[in-house]
Each structure stands twice: as structure tokens, then as C-alpha cells.
Amino acid sequence: MKNFVSEADIGFPILRNAQDHCTQLAAVTDASLSTVYGITKPPALQISSFEAITCLPPDCMHDILEGVVPVVLLYLVLTLSMTT
Length: 84
What we know:
By secondary structure, the chain is mainly α. The chain has one domain. The chain is built from 4 helices and no strands. The chain has helices at 18-27, 31-37, 52-55, 60-83. The longest helix is centred in the C-terminal third of the chain and has 24 residues, at 60-83.
């Protein structure tokens, strides 16, 4: 039987969705929160049918190097350390 590990189980942040992004945009008026959320200001192009979170293509380099690879390596290390 295989074990599945979610990102939240091993300490990785959960991906941002459109609702969280809107909440974070509203909170960015406080300058100290801009470094926490990685958002400095609302987008320059605001169209009602366009959401940056869902409409833009993924960034492969960040998805692989900051997403998949660390999770897989951590899972391998945890799995190997439990078997020895």
C-alpha cells in the first residue's frame, strides 16, 4: 500500500487561489504585509473577466525547482530514514 503525502503535511504552503489572492490584495495596504504575501500593489490591468491567478500560464522553472523537486526529495529522505 502506498503512502501519499500532501504539501501541507510536510510544511509547504498551500497554493494561492483567486479568493486568497483578493484577500491578500486587500491586506497589502499595510506595507509590512507586502513582503509576507509577495504582492506590492494591485495589478495594473484590471479586467472583470481576467484573474491573474487562474488565467496566466504556470511558470515551469518555479513549479519544478520550488515545487516538485523539494517535495520529492523531502519525501525520499523521510521514507529512507524511516526504513533504516
